[in-house]
Each structure stands twice: as structure tokens, then as C-alpha cells.
């Protein structure tokens, strides 16, 4: 499991750890890790030209101590000081002792454009708002220079706790972060600014609380959650998932949700709705009914909404069922809010940003800029688990606790119908007995991976993604 903690938690942990260690020990650990990462990226340190962008806090201090280490290995290191009189004193002294030279921001452009590597030590977890104008100017030179940029702890200018990017921010190729990931390194849009991320152990593990703010499942975690049939299993014990989806106008959504459900581990898939002929023609193994959800026979979980059009009565019937229910797409618009809140069995809602915005009564951009807060808010309002789709998908439980984050996907998944596949897949995992949080996060993980496998850099259709779920499942199982 990859975990991330909020700034406040990181600071508390750092204080606890610092109290046990000699002064400056943490920063030395951070700087040592940072210098190693820079050296690896450069390949050859001796003779290389490194430019440090140094802000006025400890983030700049990390950069200066790392710069000193690199200067001692024969690199030519220059530091552009944003606020010379407020620069980290110990770091600056060490840097100068090692032969580093300082540069006035006025000469920053020329220096940065001649660099082989730029180290962004402008601001770390102490930053708020986008970069200030003088810092933005320097960041602009780094982008212009088209040389590798290594961010210290975080790409400067992003919001550490939320992943929002409210103004100018550094775009890094590599971010070397200390002690733990910060939420911004796992959540878009900030995640994109970080490039690849390397975590340097500074000993925080022992002092961080057990429950993180965010967690991202890895192959091994997903493998442990996948339902596997045993000797006593039969199709009913494996779970039956009901799909109430599709309409005369959108029959394809039913086919795609069923395609996802058949790959999600349930023992049987029941389909209810007007697209039964299309479903059965494509998937003869599906049990179909046109009697409505109440009379369709027992299921262990329902999926309602994909391509449902305007049929609110089917949504109402499913929402009143006393089994886990996944509500997606049109279902999110049609479901009675009080009825959703009144449910006692688990509910999983799977909006994209536009649907989440409609549910919250805000503009889509507001959700896109504050995805974490939006997912938490929706989960609390509806008493449901909320899976907010996007390039990083977030899964938040109503009870609070760590929010799951998934980034296995690819932009090629932004294709019509891929969300229908995801809802069928997640519903099937719910029917197989996973909690709403696990079903949502395992489905997002497999779906993202399936998108990558199916696409391999080329356009794909949603049905390709559904077919590739089997390969994603094997990939996870065989890790
Ligand atoms: N606290 C610790 O024990 C450790 C901290 N470390 C480093 O220290 C950093 C935190 O240091 P600080 O608390 O000093 O804070 P930062 O260095 O992250 O930022 C504070 C400084 O940045 C300026 N600033 C804030 N917002 C800005 C903006 N939008 N544009 C430009 N400048 C801005 C502020 O004026 C302030 O001087 C971490 O990110 C990490 O790099 C590491 O050395 C590991 C140990
Ligand atoms: N840029 C992206 N990167 C990765 N995954 C994405 C991206 N855009 C969308 N997705 C994923 O693709 C799926 C699209 O679902 P949705 O928006 O409901 O589409 P539809 O309604 O057409 O099925 C979601 O799983 C979402 O997380
Ligand atoms: K930084």
C-alpha cells in the first residue's frame, strides 16, 4: 500500500522525530537522498552544471545541503537565491564551504539556461497558493531550458494537501519526497506536475499514525482482495450481480455494464431492462428478465443507472433493495436523495466530475480543482461510498477514514462507455462480497490496468477494456 499523510500530520511526526535526534539530522537524511537521486539522473556528476532554485524555507535548505554534496563530487553548482537575507543559514554556509556559488535572481535566466539539471527548492510543504511572481519567473526559465527538473519534496506551487494547482507551479521530471508521500503526489492535477516520484526514508515511519489520509492499492493489495472460488463454491455462493441498465435509446450501456460484470468475479449476472435481446445476443450466459428489479430473482448486489435514460421507477426499485447497490450515470440524477441516504445496506456511487458537480450543486471546474474535498463531501452528504472518476480516481467512505486513490489508468480510458464497464465490474465485486470501498478501489485498479493493456498507446473502445480485464486480473494475481 502506498500511503500519503497531510502536512499537519507530517509536521507533528517530524517534531516527534526531531526531538529524538541531533539537530539537523533529518535535513541531512533528506539532502543525502536528494543528492543521490540527482546523481543518478545525471549519470556523471563530475563536471556537470547544476542550478538550485532556493526559496526562503527548509525546502531551500534541503536543496543547498544536497548541492553541497554534489559540489564536493565535482559538479559546478550555482544557487539562485530568491530571498538572500532569509535563506537557510546552515545550508548556505555548507554550500559555500563546498565551493557552490550564489547567483542573484536577476541573473537567473542565463544561469538556468546553461544548466544540465535544475533542482526546485523554492517551496515544499510550507507553500500556499501558486508561485509568487519572482518564483514563477524562475520556474519559467527552468521550463524554457528543457533540462531535467528535480523537485524537492513537492513541485513548488501545488497545494500539498489537496492536489490542487491554483496558479503557477513547477513541472518536474522527478520529485524526491521525504518521509512519506504527500496527497498532492497522488492526486491530479498536482500529480502530473511531480513527474516520477521517489520516496526517501528519513525515519518518519515509526512516528506517523497508523491511518493515513490517502492510500493507493498496489498489485499485492489487490491480489489479496480478489475473490477466488473454492471447493465449496457454486454460482450462487460466488454471488449474483443484477444489472438494471440500458434503455431503448442506450442499449449499448447495458451490454457494456454486463461485459464488465462478467469479469468481476460474481458467479452469475442477471440483466433487467429493455436491452435484453442485445445483451443475450452478445452474452448468452446472462440471465435476463423484463419483469423489473423486484421480480428478477435474488441478487447479492445491484448496479443501476448506466444508459438508464429517464426511467426513475427502476432506479427507485433498486435503491429500495436491501442489498449493496451501485448507482452510476443517469441513476445518479434519477435517484431520490433521501431514499439513498436512508439506505442501510452499502451504497457505492460512481460519478465523474460533471455528475459530482450536479449532485453538489457546484460548477464542474470546482470539482475538478478540489477532487478530494468533493469526494469526501459527497460521501458524507449521501451516507455512501463515493468513487469519483477521472485520471486519478478517488474512493471515499461515508465514515471518513483513508481515501483510496487509483492512478493505474490512462487517458485512453476517456472513451464512451468505459464508465459502464467500470460500474459492472465494481458491482460484480460487490456481489462477490467485497465492501463498497474495496469493490470500488479494486474495480478502478483493474479497469485502469485493463485500459493500459488493451490500449498499449493506441485508441481503444470500451468493449476492448472489458475484454482486457481478464488479463489485468491475471497480471495482478501473478505479480
Ligand atoms: N521539518 C522537517 O523536519 C523537515 C523538513 N524538510 C523540508 O522542509 C520543507 C518545509 O520547510 P518550511 O516549513 O520551511 O517551508 P517551505 O520551505 O516549504 O516554504 C516556506 C517558505 O516558502 C515561502 N513561500 C510560501 N508560499 C510560497 C509561494 N506560493 N511562492 C513562493 N514562496 C512561497 C514562504 O515565504 C516561506 O519562506 C519540506 O517540504 C522539506 O523539503 C526536510 O528537510 C525534512 C525534514
Ligand atoms: N484522463 C484519464 N486518465 C485515466 N482515466 C480516465 C481519464 N479520463 C477518464 N478516465 C476513466 O475512464 C472512465 C470514464 O467513465 P465515464 O466518464 O463514466 O464515461 P462513460 O459515461 O462514457 O462511460 C472512468 O473510469 C474514468 O476514471
Ligand atoms: K520544491
From TrEMBL:
AMP binds at residues 389-393, 419. Binds 1 potassium ion per subunit. HAMAP family: NADHX_dehydratase, NADHX_epimerase. The lineage of its organism: Bacteria, Bacillati, Actinomycetota, Actinomycetes, Kitasatosporales. Catalyzes the epimerization of the S- and R-forms of NAD(P)HX, a damaged form of NAD(P)H that is a result of enzymatic or heat-dependent hydration. This is a prerequisite for the S-specific NAD(P)H-hydrate dehydratase to allow the repair of both epimers of NAD(P)HX. It catalyses: (6R)-NADHX = (6S)-NADHX; (6R)-NADPHX = (6S)-NADPHX; (6S)-NADPHX + ADP = AMP + phosphate + NADPH + H(+); (6S)-NADHX + ADP = AMP + phosphate + NADH + H(+). In the N-terminal section; belongs to the NnrE/AIBP family. Belongs to the NnrE/AIBP family. This is Bifunctional NAD(P)H-hydrate repair enzyme. Its EC number is 4.2.1.136, 5.1.99.6. InterPro entries: CARKD, Nnr, Ribokinase-like, YjeF_N_dom, YjeF_N_dom_sf. It comes from Streptomyces pseudovenezuelae. K(+) binds at residues 59, 120, 156.
